[in-house]
Design brief:
Blueprint: H1 3-31, H2 47-50, H3 53-80
Helix pairs in contact: 1-3
Length: 81
């Protein structure tokens, strides 16, 4: 992977994460319309979210994207020394 690719991957991750955050929030609000972006950062505080398989699946995808983004950044830092 070249250094030029780093920026492209970062932009791709940002786009995917943004889209997935919006999807998770939309699903959460379909369950409870009063939920905010901050609320879904702690879904364990809302039993209706904990019990919803679709919310948990989409939230898991978001967590995976965030983990991959962190791994990419760590690899870049190691490479740059």
């Amino acid at each position: 992977m070249s250094h030029g690719d780093d920026g492209e991957f970062e932009a791709l991750f940002e786009s995917m994460i943004s889209q997935q955050r919006a999807k998770v929030l939309s699903i959460a609000r379909a369950i409870n319309a009063r939920l905010t972006e901050d609320d879904i950062l702690s879904p364990q505080d809302f039993p209706e979210l904990v019990d919803d398989a679709r919310f948990n699946y989409e939230d898991g995808l978001l967590a995976g994207l965030l983990s991959a983004q962190i791994a990419l950044r760590a690899q870049r830092r190691r490479r740059e020394g």
